[in-house]
C-alpha cells in the first residue's frame, strides 16, 4: 500500500521517536501512574493488595502483565466518582459513554487530561491532512458523547476553522458544507455514507460542488469495503479514528493517509492484546481483546482496561514516518459477537459482503430470534432506487447471491430480505445493526 500524498505529522518528536526511546518513556510513566493510582484510588489499591503486588514491584512495561485488569463493570460499580484519582475540584470536564452496551459511564478529566486529549485529536486530524487552512465540519454529536468535543478540540489546537454542527439535520449539514467550502468532515462512518447519498440525492456532484478532501470517521466498527464506498461517494480520503471515553475519547489511535491500521498514541497509552478467555497477553499480529493503560492521565487513570474490542497490533514502522504501533481495524466488540447456532458472527462480516454487492446500499439490520429452540438470523438490507424498480426475477437473483456469499463468509444460512430504499432507520450517532429478540 502507499500513496503519493504528503504526510503531515503534528508532533514528530513524540510520533517518530525510536521504539527503544519510547519504551523507556512508557516505563517511566507507567511506574509513576501505578504509584499515583495506588495512592489515590482505594478500590485499585485493594485489588493490587489482593494480588500481593506493590507499586515498587512495577519497574517498567515488562511488569505490566502483573497488574490486575479494570473493566467497564468497575466504572458502573464505582458510579459516578469512585475511580477518580484527582480531587473533584481539579476535574474540569465530565464526558460519558454513549451507553451502547447498557448503563452509562462517566469519566472525569483534569485540565491536563483535556490537553492530552486535544493533542491526540490534533495528531489525528493532522494525519488526515488538516492544517490551519482547513475548514472542519464536526457532525459528531456534542454533549456527553466524546465525538463532538474531541474533534472540536483537535481542530482548534491546529488552528483550523471549526464548524461545530453536531449531528442531525442532514440537508443543513450539506448546505453549510457547500456554501462554506468545508474541506474536512468528522462524523460516524454510517453518517458519512448517509451524507454522501443525500449529497447525490440533492443532485450535487461532490467533486464539483464540494471542497471536501478528507474525513476522520469512527466511534463504531466499519469495514475496508465501507471505507472505499465512502471515499467514492464523497470523493475524499476516509481515515479511521478510534477511541473510548474511559481512555480519553476519540484520538487514542488514528489512521494516517496510508490507511493501513491506526497509529496508537503510545506516549499516552500502552496497548496490549490479550486472549479474552484467559487474560494471557498475546504476541504482535495475533487477534484478541485490546487492553489499554493510560500513562499521562490524572483525573481517572485506567490500568489494563479491557475494551472488549477485537483487533491485532502491528509494530512495523509505517511509510508515513511514524514509529508508533498500529492497531488493525476493530472487527467487533466481544459483546457484539452474535452466536448463531453455535457459530460466532460479527456484523462487520455481513457488512463486508453487502458493500461489495451492486444494487444494495450498505444499510442493514440483523434480526436474530429463536424459533423452535433454533437460532435464526434475518439480514435486512436496503435496495438502491434502481434495484427497487427492477424486475422481480433480478431482485431474487441478487437476494440469492447475497445469501450464498454470507453463507460462504460466516458459514451459516440466513434469511436475506431486501427492503425498500431508506426504510432502515438512520442513526446520527452510532449505527444500530442488530436486534436480538433472544435477549429482549
Ligand atoms: P460506548 O459505545 O461503549 O457507549 P464510547 O462512546 O466511549 O462508548 O465508544 C467507545 C467504543 O466505540 C469503543 O470501545 C469501540 O467499541 C467503538 N469504537 C470507537 N471507535 C471505533 C472505530 N474506529 N472502529 C470500531 N469501533 C470503534
Ligand atoms: Zn502511518
Instruction: Please describe the biggest sheet, giving its number of strands, its sense, and whether it closes into a barrel.
Output: 9 strands, mixed
Strand ordering within the main sheet: 4-3-5-6-7-8-9-14-13
CATH topology annotation of the largest domain: Rossmann fold
The poorly predicted ranges are none
Structural class: alpha/beta
Rg calc: 22 Å
Strand % is 15-25%
| Averaged pLDDT | 94
- Helix share bin: 25-40%
Distance between the termini: 44 Å
Overall strand count: 21
**Which CATH class of the largest domain applies here?**
Alpha Beta
The CATH homologous superfamily of the largest domain: ANL, N-terminal domain
Q: Could you say which overall geometry the principal axes of the C-alpha atoms support?
A: globular
| DSSP summary: helix tally | 13
